[in-house]
Amino acid sequence: MNKKKWAISAIVIFLLLLPLISCIKSNNVETVRVGEVTRSIFYAPQYVAISKGFFEKEGLNVELKTTWGGDKTMTSLLSDGIDVALVGSETSIYVAAQGSNDPVINFAQLTETDGTFLVAREKAENFSWDQLKGKTFLGQRKGGMPQMVGEYVLKQHDIDPKKDLTLIQNIDFANVANAFASGTGDYVQLFEPTASIFEKEGKGYIVASFGEESGTVPYTTFMSKQSFLNANPEAAEKFTRAIYKAQQWVDTHSTKEIAEAIAPFFEDTSMDTIETVVERYKSQHSYATNPILDEKEWENLQNIMDEAGELPKRMKHDTLVNTKIANTVMGE
Q: What is the extent of the structural domain holding 101?
């Protein structure tokens, strides 16, 4: 066979093998099932990681579902309904305190402040926290980060949640906003974009930010069972790398660009509202710029839990937090 015929044969063989090569590459894509505690613009970097293809570039197919509430999210994680949970770090402490043989490990932080806002039924020209005294406050689920931060902030303003106001905490997370819209409470603690939507519709008025009042805290993190991280170290690293890229992208791009990137995840929310909310979260530094959950934040979390009477026992940072993965991707 002369060189020309050999070259033609080689090309034909390559073309015949190309579909097989593509198939092999496709089979190397790993699926990671993620459960988010709620759907919120508060989690913008996560949606950016999906819409900008950062997970895809890492060879990951992220299946995202909203699990609506800390209890349901953690139940789904512990029962292997999901691989990764995006939920408050306090849930990992609750699981560990029960003596789990397969602890839940925080490996990538997404937000670093509280993401809720105080919404009043009546518009207040000059709001002050003491206006809550004697009123009905519709709070979040007892034992969850929103509720604990809410009570922490109230106490910082010399308000005893149990004595100075009527505190309602028995309404399911997904129904708090509807309860307020139906007439329950003088004040309510809401996430975005619900808070801004209520304001635009005249159902309530944002008067304060719990995130600005409470300081830096590991409010929402990605976590997995230790067994999953042990069995899938490369997937965990790829996942964290994609999140870090998204965090950096959010930090360096405009409010409008971020809003456009995450808009498909909020089809029922106007672009103006999305931009308003993104700007609000960016201005109070709610979006973490890297995935590391440090010891100072961890201690602040436990202090808030302790103040709320919800800390079952103190947990060392390195017991429930893995920073090695984040440090690896940041050091590349």
A: 25-113+217-330
